[in-house]
């Protein structure tokens, strides 16, 4: 994927990748059907955005910032999660799913708190 270098956030690269895979008439809602996303180690910056119906999400080792979207609490099919080594902050949204992941899924985000990490002040 040589074209990844010109993108700076997940919100710009995901629609581009989907557009390259399908004609315009088919890609408009394709993000709703993604099951696996691995954009680790891409130096992406900015926020995470809204992504639904995922089974696997690896956004580790980027420069993502802000809070984990509350919508992530509704990702009931998510079985793999790695948000480590970014600049995420705030409380991890409460859900059975997000709290079931190991602390390592969230490590390296100094201002992130809540189970399974330390309680928020």
From TrEMBL:
Main location: membrane
Compartments (UniProt record): Membrane
Segments of skewed composition (Polar residues): 99-110
Domain of life: Eukaryota
Annotated protein name in UniProt: Uncharacterized protein
Cross-referenced SUPFAM superfamilies: L domain-like (SSF52058)
Keyword tRNA-binding: no
Record's keyword terms, sorted: Glycoprotein, Membrane, Signal, Transmembrane, Transmembrane helix
Membrane topology: Single-pass type I membrane protein
Chain intervals for the UniProt region annotation (Disordered): 99-121
């Amino acid at each position: 994927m040589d074209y990844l270098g010109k993108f700076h956030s997940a919100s710009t690269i995901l629609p581009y990748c989907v557009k390259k895979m399908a004609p315009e008439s088919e890609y408009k809602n394709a993000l709703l059907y993604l099951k696996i996303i691995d954009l680790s180690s891409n130096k992406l910056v900015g926020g995470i955005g809204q992504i639904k119906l995922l089974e696997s999400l690896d956004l580790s080792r980027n420069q993502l910032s802000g809070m984990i979207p509350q919508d992530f609490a509704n990702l009931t099919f998510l079985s793999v999660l790695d948000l480590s080594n970014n600049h995420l902050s705030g409380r991890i949204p409460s859900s059975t799913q997000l709290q079931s992941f190991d602390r390592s899924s969230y490590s390296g985000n100094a201002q992130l708190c809540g189970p399974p990490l330390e309680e928020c002040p």
